Amino acid sequence: MASVTMPDHSVFEEKLQYLKGVGPRRAEVMADAAGLETFRDLLHYYPRRYLDRTTTVNIRDLRESTEPVTVVGTVRAMGEVPGRRRKRFELVVQDDTGQMKAVWFHRLGWIRRVFDEGDQVAFHGKVQQFGRTFSMTHPDFDKLDGDGPSLDTGRIIALYPGSSALEKIGLTSRSFRRLVYTLFKEHGLRIPDILPKWIRQEFGLMEGHIALRAAHFPRSQEELETARKRLKFEELFFIQLLLALTKQTRQEVATKAVLDQPGPLVKRFLNDVLPFQLTDAQQRAFGDILKDTGSGLQMNRLIQGDVGSGKTVVAVLALLHAIDHGYQGAFMAPTEILAEQHLTSLTEYLEPLDLN
């Protein structure tokens, strides 16, 4: 028999506070605000959407458009400009082909402190044209300081779910990208694949650590879709595995209740109260319930059917079957309106049987 090497999941369980760039204070906020406590949590903190910045546009080639583009240039001038209603902050950005403006109307004090003349910056946004001047209003941006790879320019970038609590400690999408990048750089080779090789091969799935990397840093739209396929399969696989294990456990544990043959309430309901005959599908569904409840094992049943197909009648039969054998039953509904509707129909069914 071939030996099976179990993957080492210890890297998954390491606490986030020990990841470079986090620390105890940030870790506490990340846990409270987003439920992020371990490396596993951060790896599975998937982006809410993506921006495709795989191409940049020269300034001379800009055109007014509703689609955002990316421009890389040098800050040549900046300052506040008075207006009729309010001030605005403008940057003059230059590349080898021309100049454009980046404009902000909010948080001027903050944006003023972000830039210095001579900064290399990538701006991403929609382009507007005023006369012969092109500009971007409130663009996303990434300062290119040259110390390491740019995680925000020239690629498909991830945008993460945020909150005011996370932003207060400086955790924006840009910060999350850097934290995830650090995690992969320092621990990527230790991330185990939780699906066996034969399953990956049978269903054409990429390796787990590659899928996780591609979910956060996709190299192309095609790679992103392949990663999504792997991660969705993995999620459904373990849901199915959990259901199978639950079923196995349930079938191994006997209950004290054995509800075998239908009793007088069920018979009176079918013969005297119900104004119609059960359909073949309803009879089969109730027959399955009788088989399960008579087995001495726990029953879990999902009955599917269109609106008006008679699922409620089958539920009433199951309740009466339990009462016939000396047990209680509960009928639950997901909303108050639906509960009131069911109360009306159940009252109509049960009053002739002296049940309330």
Overview of this protein structure:
The chain is an alpha+beta fold and about 350 residues long. The protein contains 12 helices and 9 strands. The strands form 2 sheets. It has a 7-stranded mixed sheet. The protein has a two-stranded antiparallel sheet with strand order 1-9. Helix 7 packs across helix 8 and helix 9 runs antiparallel to helix 11. The two termini are about 60 Å apart.
SSE layout:
Elements: H1 23-34, H2 39-43, E1 49-52, E2 69-81, E3 88-95, E4 98-104, H3 108-114, E5 120-125, E6 127-130, E7 133-137, E8 140-143, E9 156-159, H4 164-168, H5 173-187, H6 197-203, H7 208-216, H8 221-252, H9 264-273, H10 280-293, H11 311-324, H12 336-350
Parallel strand pairs: 4-7
Antiparallel strand pairs: 1-9, 2-3, 2-5, 3-4, 5-8, 6-7
Helix pairs in contact: 7-8, 9-11, 10-11
